[in-house]
Amino acid sequence: MPESSEGYLSSIKQWCKRNLGFILLFFYVLILCVAGPLSIKELVRHHAERHVVVWFVAGVFVYVTIPITVAGIVQHTKNFSDPPQQKRLIRIMMMVPVYSFFSYLGMILKDKVIYLDSLRECYESYVIYNFMMFLVTFMYEHYNVEQLLTYKPAQPQLWPFQRLPPWPRGKSFVIWAKRGVFVYVIAKPLTTFLTLVFTLAGKSGKGEISLGSVWFWTLIVDNFSQAWALYCLVIFYKALKYELAPLKPLPKFLCVKAVVFFSFWQGFFLELLVLFKIIKDSKDPDGYSAEDVASTAQNMLICIEMFGFSIAHIFVFSHKPYETDDDLPPTQFFSTLSDVFDIRDVGNDIRAQLGMSVREMRDRSSGRAPGDGERMPLLFHPGSTSEHVELETIKDYTSNHSSENVS
Question: What is this structure's pTM?
Fold first, then answer.
C-alpha cells in the first residue's frame, strides 16, 4: 500500500510538472473571473468617473499581458538547458510584467507614483545590462573571444564618429564594451535616487529647462549614459555579427530598445505638454493636477504598449532553441526562479569593472601599460572555460568573414 501511494503521488507530481502552465492559467482565469465583476461594480459605484474608466482599461491590458509573459517564462524554466543564457533572457522578459504592474499601481496610487516610477526606471538599466551579458555569455561559451578579436580587423567607430580612432582589439574590446553598459547601470539608479530626493524636497525643478534644475541635469546624464550604453551594444554586435548570428540578436535588441525608447520619450513629450500648459488641471472632482494627468497618461500608455511587447517577446525570446528531451526535476521551476532573482552576478561584475579601472589608473601612474602581468576577469560565469575555436583556425576564420563583420 505505501508503494502504491508513493507511485500515485509521483504520478501526480509528474502530471503537475507537465501541465504547470495550464494550472497557472486556470488559477489566473479564476482570479480574473473574480476581479472582472468587482471592477465593473466599481465602475458603476463611481458612476464611471474618468480616472476610474482609465484604471479599468489599463487593468484589462495588464491582466491579459502578464499571463502571456508568464507562459513564456514557464516554458524557459521547463527547458532550462543553458542557465547562464536563459536566466538573463528571463530577466529581460520580466521587463514587461514589471513595467505593466508598476505603471498600473502608479495610476491607482498617484501619491506614490514617484516611488513606483523610480523602481521601474531602475529596472530599465538592469535589462540593458542583462542583454549585454547575454551576448557576452554566448560568445564565451562558444569562442575564445580574446584570440578571435585579436585577429579580427579593428572595429571602426559608428556615424558620426568615423574620424575617431577605432576600438581596441582583443581583451580590451570586451572590457570597454562592458564598461560602457556599466556606466548606465550605475548612473541610472544614482540619478533616479537624486531625482527622488529632490522631488520629495520640492526642489527638483521638474519640467524646467535651466541650469539650476536638478531634473534638467539628471535628464542630460540619463540620456548620455543610456546613449553610450546602446552605442557600446551596437559596436559589440557589429564586431561579432557573424558569430552572434545564431542568437538572432537584432530583433531582441530592437525589443529592448523599443521599450526604453517609448517609455522615455513619451514621458518627456508629456512633460513638455505640461510645461507649455497644453495639459491642464483636471476639471473633474478627482483632484488631478496637470502633472497627475500626464503621469496617468504615461502609465496608461505603458500598460497598453506592454501588451504588444508581451506577444513580441514570446517569439523573439522563444524557448525553442533551448528545448531538450531530458526530463527536468520537479524542483527545477523554483530553483530556476531562485537563480534568476539572485543578482550577485551584477555585484561581482560591478566590483570587477571598478577593480579594473583602479588598476588601470595605478598602472598609468606608474608608467606601465594597463593590465601588465595580470589577467582581467571579463565574465563571472562558471561554464565559460570551453574554447571551441583554436588559435590556428582563427586566422583563417577571420580572414574569410572580416569583410562581413566590418560592413
Answer: 0.78
- Concatenated DSSP letters for 293-310? HHHHHHHHHHHHHHHHHH
Where residue 137 falls among pLDDT bands split at 50, 70, 90? very high
Diameter of the chain measured on Cα atoms: 80
Q: Is 93 exposed, middle or buried (0-12, 13-18, 19+ CB in 10 A)?
A: buried
**Grid cell for residue 223:** 540620456
* Residues, the chain: 407
Angle between helices 113-142 and 290-316 (to 10 degrees): 20
Q: CB-based contacts of 398: which residues, under 8 Å, 6+ apart?
A: 148, 151, 152, 153, 405
pLDDT at 244: 93
What are the backbone angles phi and psi of residue 324, rounded to the nearest 5°? -140, 150
pLDDT of residue 385: 36
Q: How far does Cα 191 stand from its chain's mean position? A: 18
> Coil, helix or strand for 324?
coil
Which grid cell is 163?
574620424
> Residue 329 above 70 pLDDT?
no
HSE toward the beta carbon, residue 133, CA cutoff 13 A: 29
At residue 292 the predicted structure's pLDDT band, cuts being 50, 70 and 90, is confident
